[in-house]
Amino acid sequence: xxxxxxxxxxxxxxxxxxxxxxxxxxxxxxxxxxxxxxxxxxxxxxxxxxxxxxxxxxxxxxxxxxxxxxxxxxxxxxxxxxxxxxxxxxxxxxxxxxxxxxxxxxxxxxxxxxxxxxxxxxxxxxxxxxxxxxxxxxxxxxxxxxxxxxxxxxxxxxxxxxxxxxxxxxxxxxxxxxxxxxxxxxxxxxxxxxxxxxxxxxxxxxxxxxxxxxxxxxxxxxxxxxxxxxxxxxxxxxxxxxxxxxxxxxxxxxxxxxxxxxxxxxxxxxxxxxxxxxxxxxxxxxxxxxxxxxxxxxxxxxxxxxxxxxxxxxxxxxxxxxxxxxxxxxxxxxxxxxxxxxxxxxxxxxxxxxxxxxxxxxxxxxxxxxxxxxxxxxxxxxxxxxxxxxxxxxxxxxxxxxxxxxxxxxxxxxxxxxxxxxxxxxxxxxxxxxxxxxxxxxxxxxxxxxxxxxxxxxxxxxxxxxxxx
Length: 469
Ligand code: CTP
Prior knowledge:
By secondary structure, this protein is α+β, with helices and mostly antiparallel strands. Among the domains are: 5-152, 2-Layer Sandwich (Beta Polymerase, domain 2), CATH 3.30.460.10; 418-466, no CATH class. 52% of the residues lie in helices and 11% in strands. The strands form five sheets. The chain has a seven-stranded mixed sheet with strand order 3-4-5-2-1-8-9. Strands 6-7 form a two-stranded antiparallel ribbon. A hairpin with an 8-residue loop joins strand 6 and strand 7 (108-111). The model has no long low-confidence stretch (mean pLDDT 94). The structure holds cytidine-5'-triphosphate.
């Protein structure tokens, strides 16, 4: 029998083993820790321990044997307990048999054997257990050929997949997420069961759905997950805006690109250049305004006028519906969507300084992220155009640097304050102050004057004369 003692080098496993001997229990480490050890994904942060007996009792015993006697958090309703050891969270659960009801993820639970407990796990690769018992320390228990599935990169359920997914529909999403994260295939029967049970996702809370979506989004090739969600019929349940981008219309021989597949390409492109999950979200949502703004006219063909603005409004609704944070992260995604075409419009070899200054002024600190998004948006298959567009963005990036060094437009602060305008012309608060301020800003952005105090002061005096002040 394969021995995995080396997986158990961390001192905490010796302590758990000692506690289990003292209590006369039978205990195993199970789930993600074992899977990730075998896949060499680095040490898992969380460790799941299953014992044939009381998980709470075992956790308390372990805590009493640890030098710092950590606090044990008990979840009585679930019969589980958790303690922290260093940066790790160790979760203890008694082996159980579960049966689920139609309308809830909360199962009826009875005590069971290790085998019962492995049966109720989601995937064969997550049902692998390593013994922490003295007489078999390090032995692997793999009743469903999980090791073979790790080898062939397969997601498979221990039991009939219809039962596993219907018992806990979150697993439908977990299957897609693991396939994406680990670059695994979902076995055929499992895949069919995903589609059959997709409607059950409705009983899952938005928070859990978003958790899984984030994990898909953080994967190296996120499109893999979104394509699976689309193929299994899951996507319309939580991201109908993306489904609305699917398809190509033809009128009078004119077509537009399929914005769903285009979007997925953009997400994969950006995933190569940023780990920022919110910038990846921005890529996923950058074109959602195209479905409601799509129009055809004989003169200009297909257009999506104002899709950036409409899209940024849709971002708010989507975040609200999925209970994602309505904070600065959402505002960031909105801003990216709203500005997503701006660099494209100015990306020509002859881009002017003033166009670049305006872009930097509007994007502020998000200018690099915006450029990253726009570069990811280049999905043309024509190598000549691909090169040309990238070159044009290089020119824009270079110009941004130049303008930045010279004009400091990012987070623009007017070089002459409103107070100074009031004092100089002895004004009462009124519209003239705003007019002068705006004129100074415009003159700087247009490059008529540098972004400096003396020049702005002289310009203010001139403008005041013009206004008869
Ligand atoms: N599990 C399950 N069904 C679920 C969630 C979890 O059967 N819906 C089981 C699996 O055996 C899983 C273990 O509980 O391995 C721990 O779950 P969790 O910590 O959520 O996942 P990990 O597998 O550890 O992976 P990750 O940390 O990447 O989520």
